Amino acid sequence: MKRRIIQLGIFCLLAGAVAVFPAGASQVEGVKFEPVHRTADQVLELSGAGLLRYMGFIKAYVGALYLPPGVDPSQVLSDTAKRLEVEYFHAIDGEDFGPATIEGISRNVDEETLARLMPKIEYHNSLYVDVKPGDRYALTYVPGRGTELSLNGEPRGIIEGTEFAAALFSIWLGPEPVSRSFKAALLGQR
User: Are 21 and 184 in contact (CB under 8 A)?
Assistant: First the structure.
């Protein structure tokens, strides 16, 4: 029961209220996001950043989205390079990320897609470890390579597939994101 309460709390953290910042912002709540990120042969530019709050007043985390220059934000879930960085204000057990990830993906894909992607989702979830305040997870998708999960700049693993990347990024950027305001902030629309 305690574990379920913790998992619900993490999902609520993901779905909480948001303070948003305009596109090009490079600092949110004292957390700096570089204006450009280079990966493989891709140059990604900061699209937007925001602060996610739990219950309207507890700072959960800040996040930033990077896209290639000239990519229309409405194409964010297509087969285009992208990077999402999230820096945490609270400690979270690694095993608690999995249920929140599955819940977020299941809100944005049909049951058949979820079932087909489940082995990749489970592998991805196994890559999470405990985080402490100030730790930063990043998801970086490069077409033809896959989605890399890294913690504080150290790669944890890569999962291949455009469909998996779209499902994973849909947690924040899909039709049923954890927060519409946070999605708008990441896309630089607020």
Answer: no
Task: Count the neighbouring beta carbons within 10 Å of the beta carbon of residue 121.
Answer: 20
pLDDT, tens only, 159-172: 999 999 999 999 99
State the helix-helix crossing angle for 97-106 and 2-15, rounded to 10 degrees. Answer: 50
Q: Which two tokens stand for residue 63?
A: 């996040």
Would you state the pLDDT for residue 5? 34
Q: Which two tokens stand for residue 5?
A: 């309460």
What residues does each domain of the chain span? 2-186
CATH dotted code for 2-186: 3.50.70.10
Listed in sequence order, the DSSP H helices in the chain are 2-15, 97-106, 111-126, 162-173, 180-186
- Amino acid 148 reads E
Q: Give me the residues of the chain with pLDDT under 50, please.
A: 1-25
Q: Which of 76, 92, 44 is nearest to 171 (CA)?
A: 76
What's the rounded Cα separation, in Å, for the pair 160 and 152? 21
Cβ-contact 83, 141 below 8 angstroms: yes
pTM here is 0.85
